[in-house]
Design goal:
The chain is mainly beta. It contains 1 helix and 11 strands, in the order E-E-E-E-E-E-H-E-E-E-E-E. Helices cover about 5% and strands about 60% of the residues. A hairpin with a 5-residue loop joins strand 9 and strand 10.
């Protein structure tokens, strides 16, 4: 195949995260609003260009008070920094369907290189004849690297929140219609 443009079908895609809470459990959540554009040959992502824009205010942990706190100045400062972005810079093949995708993550005005493992899940036509491709991505970032340092000491020792955020992304993308 050749490199073509793919747009993410957000009704069949998700960005989820988890963080350690009280050093004993994990709290999970997701971002409900995001866009992504891929220019890729799904059979060989090494020449792909991948860009994400996430609406920081769309954070959802199934708890309105916590979500509002996460949008506040203690965490995402969503009014001042409404988006979180990713732009790929280097993609290397690990095996037949798995890649290391390194790129720039920008969060709270801080840009850092991060690497995610991306798996090409397959490709096919939907019932209406549209070409679709599926991808999974996983990785971890340290929230303190981006200035997300809010925390509280526990009386039993340790901290309320872990520093490592685990990300899991599932994407279904449709081949863009050529004009």
């Amino acid at each position: 195949m050749t490199v073509t443009k793919w747009t993410v079908d957000d009704t069949h895609s998700s960005i989820e995260f988890s963080v350690k809470h009280m050093m004993i459990a994990k709290v999970k959540g997701n971002f409900n609003k995001f866009t992504a554009v891929l220019e890729a040959d799904p059979a060989d992502l090494t020449t792909a260009s991948i860009e994400f824009t996430v609406d920081a205010a769309s954070i959802d942990t199934r708890n309105e008070d916590r979500d509002n706190h996460l949008r506040s100045a203690d965490f995402f400062k969503a009014e001042e920094y409404p988006t979180i972005t990713f732009k790929s810079a280097e993609i290397t093949k690990k095996d037949d369907n798995e890649y290391n995708v390194t790129g720039d993550v920008t969060l709270l005005g801080v840009t850092r290189k991060e690497t995610f493992t991306v798996t090409f899940e397959g490709q096919g036509k939907d019932p209406w004849g549209n070409e679709k491709a599926g991808f999974s991505a996983a990785g971890k970032i340290k929230r303190s690297d981006y200035g997300l340092t809010y925390n509280a000491a526990l009386e039993t020792g340790g901290m309320l929140l872990g520093d490592v955020i685990t990300l899991s992304i599932e994407l279904e993308a449709g081949k863009a219609v050529q004009e």
